[in-house]
Amino acid sequence: MRRLPSVLAAALAASSLLPSHALAQSARSGEGAAVVRVPVKAAGEKAIRGKATFYELRSGGGNCSYPSPPADNLYVALSPAEYAAAAACGGYLNVTGPKGSVRVKVVDQCPECPAGHIDLSRTAFARVADPGKGMVGVSYRAVRHPRIGRPLSFRVKEGSSRWWLALLVIDHGNPLASIEVKAAGGAWRRLARADYNYWIADSGMGRGPFAVRVTDTRGHRVTAGRVRLAPAVIQRTTTKMY
């Protein structure tokens, strides 16, 4: 993870601020079964009251493996319980503090943060509080169906081949529930999510190109075609989740 330490993170010692049913449980799943965990909290429930600090990504897009931070520099890192082994990646939170509110994208994990402590980008923190305070009380909730304005993109991880495939999905809006891939003439096959947010086929999917079926946690399902076995290339599509 390429991130600077949280401001005053070590000073915060608190028990979980989430009800037990909202905490995602870490689990392992073999190939052929999608790893589905509950991110942060469902929209419509009461906002979570907690604490916020701030940090800056050194490079890249944090533990969620995005190629870069959001263009507006509004992002957040979550505690391990709320990050939920990457289940929260790509979702959005509305955060409210003493100065106002901001919408941030989940791109990273804050290993030292207890549940209820979020680590905002400096830009986002400045929207809700004076950065000179270092740590402030905030409330936050998951955003339902955030408007992205861009279609899905895919990135095949370096080292992928016909025998091993790792696939990253970008610009989906709601957190993801499952990814399925089908090669020409083949059957749909569910991939397993790694804690760095790539979806893995341990024995590969052949040479491609592939059809990719994406399902989010709100029940939207779309299919994008002709995703190539082209490692380290951002492949843009015309397919939107909703």
Series of H and E elements: EEHEEEHEEEEEEEEEE
CATH homologous superfamily caption of the largest domain: RlpA-like domain
Domain count: 2
DSSP strand content: 25-35%
The whole-number mean of residue pLDDT values reads 85
At the third CATH level, what is the topology name of the largest domain?
Barwin-like endoglucanases
Number of strands: 15
Radius of gyration, whole Å: 18 Å
CATH top level of the largest domain? Mainly Beta
Which keywords apply here?
six-stranded mixed beta barrel; disordered N terminus; Barwin-like endoglucanases; mainly beta; 2 helices; Immunoglobulin-like; 242 residues; five-stranded antiparallel β-sheet
Would you write up a description of this structure?
With 242 residues, the chain is mostly beta strands. The protein folds into two domains: 9-142, Barwin-like endoglucanases, CATH 2.40.40; 153-236, Immunoglobulin-like, CATH 2.60.40.760. 5% of the residues lie in helices and 33% in strands. The chain is built from two helices and 15 strands. The protein has a six-stranded mixed beta barrel with strand order 1-5-2-4-3-6. A five-stranded antiparallel beta sheet has the order 11-12-8-7-15, with no helix packed on it.
